[in-house]
UniProtKB/TrEMBL annotation:
Protein name: Methionine synthase reductase
UniProt cross-references to PROSITE patterns, sorted A to Z: FAD_FR, FLAVODOXIN_LIKE
CDD domains assigned: methionine_synthase_red
Pfam families: FAD_binding_1, Flavodoxin_1, NAD_binding_1
Molecular function per GO: [methionine synthase] reductase (NADPH) activity; flavin adenine dinucleotide binding; FMN binding
Secretion signal span: none
Organism whose genome encodes this protein: Amphilophus citrinellus
EC number of this enzyme: 1.16.1.8
Domain FAD-binding FR-type: 251-512
Needed co-factor(s): FMN; FAD
Gene Ontology terms: biological process: homocysteine metabolic process; methionine biosynthetic process
Length: 681
């Protein structure tokens, strides 16, 4: 019998947090249903693919990280295609489609995808399907789902074209392409699924995580195909119980002492801001510059790990060692044992330090949970939440409130997934970055940082609110050792603990190397952190070189109330008195007299952008006439966008140019690294 050769295509991904990877894996898995074979590789596995000789269609799925940077595992690839020596027909033979993931809350939306696309085109590659730009700020699925749906037809047509061009795939095209196999219709699939369709539960008046209302509870559902299992996990009893002290050792990871903890806000402030001082004197690799940030490694909360162990029925096996291997006959393309889970660690270690157990379960995870849910009402609701028809409910009850798997399992008591499923679906526990809020010249051997304790409110499915993982953990760690400004430090304060940290590389968010260059800093709330470092450094430099020329410095700061959450007030006023800070512009969003006209920002600057507008002439002068720099730090969701729009307005008005020209000027400033952002959301 002749062996059938299925037409092949290539899927390449670059992924920071695993989203692009899981979409790419999904494409590779589905290929078979379309009579195709997908060769899946990560962009950094360049031994597995060869674009220089590739004749099959290539699908790229890439995310963007930081300030428009490629993900770590796409970095080398992006660098390699940017080489100026490549000729304009280097990729003439290449046919590609690209799905770019990004977040419009950050600058340089989908920049990595856009860069790859631009270079592919400059090097002669041909696009066979329009590029998708998915926005995590509003929900990736809004773009990803329809993009994936159209992809198969586009691949088929691309292969068809190649075939008609004399390609060897000639007779294979269109062999067995199903109409739409991504969404197996529940209404028409298995008998058990059909029985689940009837709303078996009483129709509730209001929808919630566990209850739906018409029309959703009465509709036929399109649920995603069941993700194939790919791991075998076993637990072995061991003789000795290890003590878990922290994440696994890495060269760059240091266990440093918290030497001071200060609460910067008053007790009645809406958010609690804390400053921690770390003693890094013993670690030369922690030597930092103002503008640098560093990672804090935090564990999952012991109570949540414990609860999860109970919920999985594994409380008595917590000290067993976990062995993970790849399922031999798995259908999952590119399946790998997660690299972030070391072999032979205990189950307790795995749940404490390796998996982000609070991550929001993706739809594929919900789909997999359906198979382990006994109660038909709960099964139906889980199906709804991962279905096309239930997308709005998924956003409302799962994604927006950042529901965790534990909260989901609590709401769906008849769901009992095996441990394997959690290891297959939960991502790596990420360290949390924080900006240095000090200069080593002012505080030798010390590193300061500032954070707000994140408070996540209760919601449907979460009866009690919770704190952010890292900030909540730090808050608990340092209490009751926290001191309040103005209050004398007691010599009997309880000793503070140590935490695991490592420095993050950064080369651009730094004060201008030439001290005569003027610069503007915009940093409301904890966004002021790096600028405290900038100004401490500047003050030290001024004292050492009193004759040197120093450019003007501006700081735009904002908070809710002057008396409650004006962070670093004394220090900032001190910088002004010493002449280190030329202009300090502060606004308070909630301190208003009743008779105040709040309709115009001129009458009442509430937010940093209002103060920028009030000083537009100076801003333009520094940025566009004196070749100065502008730094923005803090909240990515609202502030950074508002500041960007205000800058556009300022440029338009001051230079009398149109929107397009203002955009070009701002883009130019970014390119010259004179408009820099360090933002988070
Ligand atoms: P997590 O447990 O990670 O929870 C945060 C998540 O909870 C949010 O992403 C959101 O999904 C969810 N959430 C938050 N509020 C709500 C809500 N009301 N309802 C529902 N869900 C909600 N932070 C600082 O405070 N200071 C800094 O100097 C600083 N520097 C940074 C520098 C960089 C380069 C980056 C990338 C980030 C920085 N951050 C900083 C942010 C910081 O890394 C953490 O993200 C932040 O402290 C929250 O961490 P967490 O673990 O406590 O919260």
């Amino acid at each position: 019998m002749p062996c059938e050769v299925k037409p092949r295509f290539v899927v390449l991904y670059g992924s920071q947090k695993g989203q692009a990877q899981s979409i790419a894996e999904g494409i590779a898995e589905e290929a078979e249903a379309y009579g195709l074979v997908a060769d899946l590789s990560c962009l950094n596995e360049n031994e597995k693919y060869n674009l220089e000789k590739e004749s099959a269609p290539v699908v790229f799925v890439v995310s963007t990280t930081g300030d428009g940077e490629p993900p770590d595992n796409a970095f080398q690839f992006v660098k390699s295609i940017k080489r100026k020596t490549l000729s304009t027909d280097h990729y003439k033979h290449l046919c590609y489609a690209l799905l770019a993931l990004g977040d419009t809350n950050y600058a340089n939306f989908c920049n990595c995808g856009k860069t790859i696309e631009r270079r592919l085109q400059e090097l002669g590659a041909k696009q066979f399907y329009a590029t998708g730009y998915a926005d995590d700020g509003v929900g990736l699925e809004l773009v990803v789902d329809p993009w994936l749906k159209g992809l198969w037809k586009a691949i088929k047509e691309s292969l068809s074209k190649m075939a008609s061009d004399g390609n060897a795939y000639l007779k294979k095209i269109g062999a067995s392409v199903p109409t739409d196999s991504k969404f197996a219709s529940v209404a028409s699939s298995s008998a058990s699924a059909v029985s689940d369709l009837k709303p078996a539960f009483p129709v509730a008046l209001a929808a919630s995580l566990t209850c739906s209302v018409p029309p959703l509870c009465e509709s036929s559902l399109n649920v995603p195909a069941l993700p194939p299992a790919y791991l075998d996990v076993s637990l072995q009893e061991v003789d000795t119980v290890e003590e878990i002290v922290g994440p696994l050792h890495k060269e760059t990871l240091h266990h440093v002492q918290i030497s001071k903890a200060v609460q910067l806000t008053r007790g009645d402030a809406v958010k609690t801001a804390l400053l921690l001082e770390l003693d890094i004197s013993a670690y030369p690799t922690m030597a930092y510059q103002p503008g640098d940030s560093f990672d804090v490694f935090c564990p999952n909360r012991a109570a949540e790990v414990d609860h999860l162990l109970h919920r999985l029925g594994l409380q008595n096996q917590r000290n067993h060692h976990v062995t993970i291997s790849l399922k031999k006959d798995t259908k999952k393309k590119g399946a790998q044992v997660p690299s972030y889970i070391p072999q032979d660690v205990s189950l307790l270690f795995l749940l404490t330090w390796c998996l982000e157990i609070r991550s929001v379960p993706k739809k594929a995870f919900l789909r997999a949970l359906v198979e382990h849910t006994r109660d038909s009402t709960q099964r139906r609701r889980l199906q709804e939440l991962c279905s096309k028809q239930g997308a709005a409910d998924y956003n409302l009850y799962v994604r927006d409130p950042s529901l965790s798997v534990l909260e989901l399992l609590t709401a769906f008591p008849s769901c009992s997934p095996p441990l394997t499923l959690l290891i297959e679906h939960l991502p790596k526990l990420q360290s949390r970055p924080y900006s240095a809020a000090s200069s080593h010249l002012r505080h030798p051997g010390k590193l300061h940082f500032v954070f707000n304790v994140v408070e996540i409110p209760a919601c449907s499915g979460r009866p009690a609110g919770r704190r952010g993982l890292c900030t909540g953990w730090l808050f608990d760690l340092i209490n009751p050792g926290v001191v309040f400004p103005g209050k004398a430090e007691s010599s009997s304060s309880p000793a503070l603990p140590k935490i695991h940290v490592s420095l993050r590389p950064n080369s651009s968010f730094r004060p201008p190397p030439d001290p005569s260059v003027p610069f503007i800093m915009v940093g409301p709330g904890t966004g002021v952190a790096p600028f405290i470092g900038f100004l401490q450094q500047r003050e030290e430099e001024r004292q050492k070189n009193p004759k040197a020329v120093f450019g003007e410095t501006w700081l735009f700061f904002g908070c809710r109330h002057r008396e409650r959450d004006y962070l670093f007030r004394e220090e900032l006023e001190g910088f002004v008195s010493s002449g280190t800070l030329s202009h300090l512009k502060v606004c308070f969003s909630r301190d208003h007299r009743e008779d105040e006209d709040t309709t115009t920002s001129a009458a009442c600057p509430r937010y940093v952008q209002h103060n920028l507008l009030l000083n537009s002439q100076h801003v333009t002068d520094i940025l566009l006439r004196q070749n100065g720099c502008l730094y923005v730090c803090g909240d990515a969701k609202n502030m950074a966008k508002d500041v960007n729009e205000t800058l556009m307005e300022i440029i338009k008005t001051e230079l009398q140019v149109d929107q397009l020209e203002a955009m070009k000027r701002l883009a130019g400033l970014r390119e010259e690294k004179r408009y820099l952002q360090d933002i988070w959301g």
